[in-house]
Amino acid sequence: MDKFRIMVQFLQANQESFMNGICGIMALASAQMYSSFEFTCPCLPDYNYAYGIGILIVPAIWFFLLGFVLNNNISVLTEEWKRPVGKRRKDPAVLRYMFSSMTQRALIAPTVWIAVTLMDGKSFLCAFSPTADLSEFLNDSYSSLSKRELQKLQARIPCKDVFDGHEMISREAATRYIRCLSQACGWTFLMLITVAAFLIRAIRPCFTQAAFLKTKYWSHYIDTERKLFDETCKEHAKSFAKVCIQQYFESISGEIVPEIQLPAKKGKGSKDDDGEKQKSDEEKLLGIRKADDMNKVLWNWHTCKPGLLLNKQAAEMNGHAHLDNHKLSNELQKQTPTKSTAVVYYSKV
After folding, report:
1. Which residue ranges run through the membrane (predicted)?
2. CA neighbor of 222 nearest in space, from 103, 106, 78, 45
3. Strand partners, 169
C-alpha cells in the first residue's frame, strides 16, 4: 500500500510522466479492446460501408475526446482562455502550445486504434467489399448479373456463413486481396503519422527556439501557479477550520461547568506544541479571517490576477532586513556631522 501511495505521489508530482503513462495505458486499452471486440458485418450493400467506416472512425474519435477528458491541463487551458485580462495579458502562443501538447497526447490512442483496425482488415473488408473491383476473381457467369445483384453478392464476402456465390467468385482470393489493400493503407497511415510527429518534434524548435522556450516556460508556469494556488487554498481552509473549531470550543467551555474538575495531566511539552501549532495555523490564515474576505480574494484572483512583476525592493527588505538596518546605521553615522564642544577650564589662581 505504501509503494502504491508513493507511486501515485510521484505521478502527481511529475505531470508530464503521469500524462505519458495515461496515454500509454489508453493505447494498450485500444488494442486490447479491438482484440476482444466481436466484429459483425451486416453484409448488406447499404450498410456495409457505414458499419465498416464507423468501426474505424467512431472509436478513434471517442479515444481522442477521452484523451482530452483525462488530461488535467484541459481545465487550465480553458480557465486561461476564458479568464478576464485584468492586470495580466493573455499570450495566444502559450495557449496554442498547451493545446498542441494536449492534442499530440490525445492522438496516441486513436492512432493505435486505426492502425490495428487497418492491419486486421475486417472493417476495411466490410466497408469496401460491395464497391471494390473484383473482376479478376469473377468467372464468366457474373456477366448475367445486374450491378445491384453483383453488389449484393460482393457484400456477402465478409460473412462466411451466408455467402452463396462460390460458383461465381473465389471468396478466399477476394478476401485476401481486400485485406492486402487494408494493410497497405495501415502501413501508409503509420508512415505518415511517424513523419508528421518527427517534423513536429524535431524541426519546429530549430526554427523558433526562443519562442518555443518562452511558450514552454509560461505553459509550465501557468500549471504550477494553479497547483500552488490550490495548495494554498487547501492550507488556508484547513487552518481556518482548525481555528474556528478551537474558538468554538473555547467559547462554550465557560458555559459548561463540570461537577468534578480533575487536574490536567501535563504531557511532554503538549502546551508548547499546541501553542506552536496554534501559531502556525494563525500564520497560515495570512490575515484573512472572514468568509467575505476569502470570497473576495477568490473572486479577484479569477477576475484580476496579479501582474507578473515581482517587487525586488520588498523582497530585499524582507530577506535582508538585518543587513539593511546595519548598512543604514553605518550610513547615518557617517552622514551625521560631529558637533564640536568647547571645554573651558577655570583656574583658582
Report:
1. 21-37, 49-70, 184-203
2. 78
3. 138
